[in-house]
């Protein structure tokens, strides 16, 4: 990667981070050629300015950025050249719409796909309308070779507002670094609201357990009556139904299928807990789970159905064992916002000691 390319990639990374964390960023323009020593210096200065803003927000590392930079610094060792869905550790990058999906024959595939469907991102160098075009296809239609991919199989594009960094990194050879998953499929709403995906950055670190790819952890506080209701449903049905979200649900960071949710019920000096797993999210997955029609699971208040089953619990522990947790920050109506890796690890240790 030459100096100009490196500078452009750094700027694209800074621009993306500034957008995600709502930071102030004014790029430093440079008209130098590749032999100019100021090219990377100016990009580095921009990055240092952004880091100062991140530190003021208490952010000392960004997982997807660190993994991308590792792959750029050591391309011969860490660029992922195998199929994109080999079992690897992955990090949340962004959630966005699938652009223009309605133009790519949805009548041929809409009924056959569900939320959780694996997607691939493929650089489209022949797109005359978007210099940074990145197409989207189902993983089953992609054999890992972007140069020989048949674009007749695409289902849409990454929106232009979200594709610059992805395109630049693919241009540097990181074609399989980004993977995606269909996370919203709705029958109603605008085109942007009805079909959405979550994009991840995958690392070169392989996983032994495929489910570990998609396991984030969330938490929610419930009162005694709700906790008792959860216990009764688990005992009688083996699963519990919840209605969370609102319209559009994509604006909230709620659990996906296979994610875990910790339910906490404070009671005096002790707290009771359940550790549960999301078995289905959305009317299509839930309909299969419950053996009903999806239309039967659409609610007038625009919430989305979630079905969870128990992993561990009920567990009763002293509040002092939860000192790692700020109870004031735990939501009460729905588990919005994934827990940090440190908090997730604390909960894992807590339940492992049960």
From TrEMBL:
Superkingdom, taxonomy of origin: Bacteria
UniProt xrefs under Gene3D superfamilies: 3.30.70.2330
GO molecular function: hydrolase activity, acting on acid anhydrides, in phosphorus-containing anhydrides; nucleic acid binding; zinc ion binding
Presence of keyword Membrane: no
InterPro entries noted in UniProt: HIRAN
Record domain HIRAN: where: 91-207
Keywords, in A-Z order: Hydrolase, Metal-binding
KW Metal-binding (keyword) present: yes
Protein name: HIRAN domain-containing protein
The organism of origin for this protein: Phocaeicola massiliensis B84634 = Timone 84634 = DSM 17679 = JCM 13223
């Amino acid at each position: 990667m030459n100096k100009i390319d490196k500078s452009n990639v750094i700027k694209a990374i800074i621009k993306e981070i500034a957008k995600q964390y709502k930071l102030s960023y004014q790029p430093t323009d440079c008209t130098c050629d590749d032999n100019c020593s100021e090219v990377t210096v100016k990009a580095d200065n921009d990055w240092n300015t952004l880091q100062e803003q991140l530190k003021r927000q208490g952010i000392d590392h960004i997982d997807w950025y660190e993994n991308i930079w590792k792959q750029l610094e050591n391309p011969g060792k860490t660029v992922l050249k195998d199929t994109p869905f080999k079992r690897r550790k992955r990090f949340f990058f962004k959630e966005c719409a699938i652009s223009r999906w309605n133009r790519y024959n949805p009548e041929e595939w809409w009924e056959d796909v569900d939320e959780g469907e694996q997607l691939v991102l493929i650089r489209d160098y022949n797109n005359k309308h978007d210099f940074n075009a990145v197409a989207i296809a189902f993983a089953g239609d992609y054999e890992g070779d972007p140069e020989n991919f048949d674009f007749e199989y695409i289902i849409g594009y990454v929106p232009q507002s979200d594709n610059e960094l992805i395109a630049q990194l693919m241009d540097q050879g990181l074609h399989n670094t980004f993977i995606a998953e269909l996370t919203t499929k709705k029958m109603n709403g605008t085109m942007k609201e009805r079909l959405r995906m979550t994009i991840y950055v995958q690392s070169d670190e392989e996983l032994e357990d495929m489910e570990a790819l998609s396991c984030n952890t969330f938490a929610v506080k419930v009162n005694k009556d709700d906790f008792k209701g959860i216990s009764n449903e688990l005992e009688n049905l083996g699963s519990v139904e919840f209605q969370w979200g609102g319209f559009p649900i994509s604006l909230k960071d709620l659990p996906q299928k296979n994610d875990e949710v910790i339910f906490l019920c404070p009671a005096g000096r002790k707290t009771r807990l359940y550790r549960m797993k999301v078995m289905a999210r959305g009317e299509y997955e839930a309909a299969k789970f419950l053996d009903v029609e999806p239309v039967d699971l659409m609610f007038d208040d625009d919430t989305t159905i979630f079905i969870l089953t128990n992993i561990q619990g009920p567990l009763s522990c002293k509040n002092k064992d939860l000192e790692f947790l700020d109870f004031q920050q735990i939501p009460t109506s729905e588990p919005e916002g994934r827990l940090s890796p440190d908090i997730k690890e604390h909960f894992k240790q807590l339940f492992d000691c049960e």
